[in-house]
Amino acid sequence: LGVSATVDKTGVALTWQRPADSRRVVVLRKREGRGRRVVVYQGRATIYRDTSARACAVYRYTILNYDRRGHRSTGVPTSISTRCADA
């Protein structure tokens, strides 16, 4: 899927390339040291901006692709650390 993740003042931006036979993409998020994974996006876009990401945290995102037959990919994981607020 060619996933990239960046952090700026407004949050985390994930971008990816959808396979040609993609019906939809699901983005899961888990904050390190916290509970379970949650769905933060479902749709056909190739970018997701997580504006609810907290400062000084590590997040693990998994991007799942569902093809036209409903088959799910194994998922593409990516981890990113958000910036800490200036002291």
Structure description:
The model has no long low-confidence stretch (mean pLDDT 91). It is built from no helices and 7 strands. The strands form 2 sheets. It has a 4-stranded antiparallel beta sheet, with no helix packed on it. A 3-stranded antiparallel beta sheet has the order 1-2-5, with no helix packed on it. The chain is an all-beta fold and 87 residues long.
Mean pLDDT: 91
Give the beta-strand count.
7
Following the backbone from N to C, one meets helices and strands in this order, namely EEEEEEE
The total count of helices amounts to 0
Please state the structural category. mainly beta
N- to C-terminal separation?
A: 37 Å
**If you compute it from the alpha carbons, what radius of gyration comes out, rounded to the nearest whole angstrom?**
13 Å
Biggest sheet: strand arrangement:
4-3-6-7
Largest sheet: 4 strands, antiparallel
Which stretches are poorly predicted, pLDDT < 50 over at least 5 residues? none
Strand coverage percent: over 45%
Shape: elongated
Question: How much helical structure, as a percent, in the residues?
Answer: under 10%
